[in-house]
What does this fold into?
Amino acid sequence: MTQFDQITTPRVRPRFGVVGTEFEGDYLLSMLEGLWHTAAELDVDLLIYSVLRTGTPPAFARQFNVNYGFVDDTVLDGLIVLGANLSSYASVTVPLDEVRKRFSHIPTVVVGCEVAGWPSVTVDGYSGFKDLVKHFLVDHGYRHVAMIEGPPESSDACERLQAYLDAHAEAGVTPNPVLRGRGHFDIASGRDQLRRLLDLGVPMDAVVCANDHMAWGCMGLALERGLNLPDDLAVGGFDDIRSYSNARPSLTSVNQDIAEQGAAAMRMLHAQVCGQTPPRDIRLSSRLVKRRSCGCLGLAAANRDEPVSDLRGHVHALMDSMSVPIRLHERLADKLMRLREALAAPGNDQDYQTVLNQIFKLWRGEGLEASLLQNFLLGIQERLLEELAPGAASLAVGRLHRGQVLIANTADLVGDLEHKTVDDTSNLHLKFKTRVTADILESLLSGLAEGLKALEVRTCYVALYQHPVPFESIASVGLPSTSRLVFALDDGELHPEWCEFEYSTCTLLPAAAEAAGQARARALMPFPMFHHNEHFGFIVLERRAQDNFSYEELRHEIAGSLHHSLLVRELDAARELLRLDLERARAANEDLSHIAMRDAMTGVFNRRGFLELAETVMRTARLTHQPMSLIFADMDGLKHINDVYGHEEGDLAICEAARLMQQCFRQEDIVARIGGDEFVALTRSGAADTITMIEQRLARRFTDYNAASTKPYQVACSFGGYLVNADSTESLDEVLAHADRMMYAEKRRRRSQRQGERATGSSTIIADFSPSGSGRLR
It folds into this structure.
């Protein structure tokens, strides 16, 4: 009988909860950045609750609402609610008024909107958005400015719509009511609404969007339609998302210093919990940032009338115009004062290069483009050189020129390393998937440890409920009262001894894990584990700023593999029980074996079924001296489909790929799904041109399907084939490895081809994750 852990561990520091959506994407990552840094300064632990998965069907998105059940005053000293973020998805999450009632006993600060009874941190988005619209109307003279609004239940969306209307009234321009569309704060809805407005055929020379994601969607569709930005259509957004500000053309937007909102909320809550009297409400300002998408150059010209002594003020003004985060202003200004001294200092370049390197690290540490730093230095060059003697000025000019070259070379090196990091991250995911595929629970958990190590994840806990629970039951009566860890990785060390006791679910972790985690402040993030509507446990991961992967994708992989393993364990137990009745066991075992060897979603063989059948077929082929062919396939663009259209559409795409693969092979051939997006086929056919013929057949099948499909995405795969000669002594693992290398070589070739097309002038701002030429194979 499992013992119950009744020990409680006193906390050594405050612990605050943060409630929002999935905490991925530039907006929420910027918010987390402010929360992280300030929590570290104040020595506060964080528990981050993702209560919604956006961009997915409501039935799937609601499953994450069970995380509200973990918000408990026995483990939290305070709570930060990202209200604007949650209210944008009110149709599938708990209304904010209900959230306030549920957690009224916990000290709370709400961010992004006002909720009665709670202190708040808000942004004056109205003024910034009105400045944006007036800039389009007055400074550029646009007269047909469309607006893509946000959802009406969002107070931010309503505020920005009112700013749009008021800006027109102040400019004396009557807006065309036809030029308005309603989106959902995502890229897809921005594209859809602009498509609808363009198809109306009414005059339109600009479009402003209630957030940057919708503006980004508009820019992508406009370029696809052959429009020149901003000459044919000017575009503006709101949020000043970092990645969009670095695009081509760079996006004119309204900056609301998202990180500072999180930092201000953290400071306010900390003061409140410590017995201080912080301001009841904080309202931050927003500001217009002019860039190329509206027709501006995006770089403020130097003010020739400024006194030389106001170099620091000029630096601040230039940083404002380039949307450099405010928290960097003073540090960068101090470095530039030192740079000015080092420029004219006699001797070697050591001091100058040291200061320039420090500036580069600060700049790149915020994710800002190196080319913008070069522009910035050009913008202050004359100020840096003023009042220098001719000899010193000549020396300084030479050093500045060498510095620009150094920045360019360093940026190329950093870019190569970042590109390698992306490739390595993708490879690590592949390594993780291949490790976490065991059917036996114990083997799966061992593989999980290896996979997490490959991803450099140092802290992960996996807990199971005593029995699976339907979502409706959790929604009505709450989470199961007890849980038990089955996996405990803490700061790189495995702790099987923590898995011996049941403990209270609301604490998330048993007392021993709590005590071990108090050595330093950290941010933990719980994720529900569920299959369809059935919840069977949860995962707790340490969220770190430097991690460069999707936590939701990691949750999805762990939960899916664990659910499969639990099914297999249940299957084994059922077989043991049914063994007592031979007649009943015979019929039941056929069905259960089918479940174990078949992929439940696609109906093709799973990894276990393929390995068992393929070994038998290969042994027979060797005895009969018959060659064989193995085809390895990996889906292209599945992550994009999941992110943009939801996991339900991603699952449909996987099923379609499996069906198309099956149609290209005979009934006696083995077609299997051996990973999340990986398929393999083994056929007794080994003529010299067999693989080419199979690839051509697959190409035609996928091309015909995509041509007839009405889906907004394409189903595509990369293929690799390997011929197994009749006298081959290679093992199945070796054959799979050969085909896998062939497939990834093809994938790299196609990626290089796409990069080459972009380098030769392809005018696109959105990466094409769904290749239009899926039939072009090896």
About this structure: The two ends are 57 Å apart (CA to CA). Residues 332 and 359 are 7 Å apart (CA to CA). The chain has 25 helices and 23 strands. The longest strand covers residues 460-470.
